[in-house]
Amino acid sequence: MIETDKPAFAKIVLGFAELKGKQLSLPAVELYWGAMKRWSIDDFKAAAERLLSTSEFMPTPFDFEQMRKAGRPTPGEQFAIVLSYVRSGAYNRDPSLAFLDRDVTRPNAIAERAVRALGGYSVIGLYEFHQIQFLEKRFAEHYEAMQDAQETRDAVPQIARSPATNRLKGPVSAGSLLEELHS
Q1: Three state DSSP letters for the chain
Q2: pLDDT score of 155 more than 60
Q3: In sequence order, what are the beta bridge partners of 168?
Q4: Domain spans in the chain, listed from the N-terminal domain onward
Q5: pTM
């Protein structure tokens, strides 16, 4: 959302609160705005209308984010694409023959990373049918962790990336982050 969406946003949040028997202070609306401003006003309104009919209590930004997560591809959906991709042999073809892969859906970037964590497409291809369920479980664990990490990195890049190198710098203590802010 942009600053000009703020009145419409406040109207939605305050109306929602009223319908749920709550009162919000100006600081509470500002916190809500800060948490939700990455959304478009149209997406926020649509989600609010859905939550109005499905939530017993006043939803928090967490509830909105849970709705957004429901729209992302699941590990199971991506694993099915990975298996199809492996069975097609497309991963093993010469890139100059890419035109042959028109009917083959390629896994998304996070699934590609999860495949690498498992050892690659050729390793997946070695699994026998009765072992696939164990492989899928490992894939799902990697996929979910990588998906959550990517969302956090995208949402809060200043925590996940070093300004000097723009590379991941790993866990950082709250104290060192505060020192960076004050320096």
Answers
A1: CCHHHHHHHHHHHHHHHHHCCCCCCHHHHHHHHHHHCCCCHHHHHHHHHHHHHHCCCCCCHHHHHHHHHHCCCCHHHHHHHHHHHHHHCHHHCCHHHHHHHCCCCCCCHHHHHHHHHHCCHHHHHHCCHHHHHHHHHHHHHHHHHHHHHHHHHHHCHHHHECCCCCCECCCCCHHHHHHHHHC
A2: yes
A3: 161
A4: 3-70, 75-155
A5: 0.64
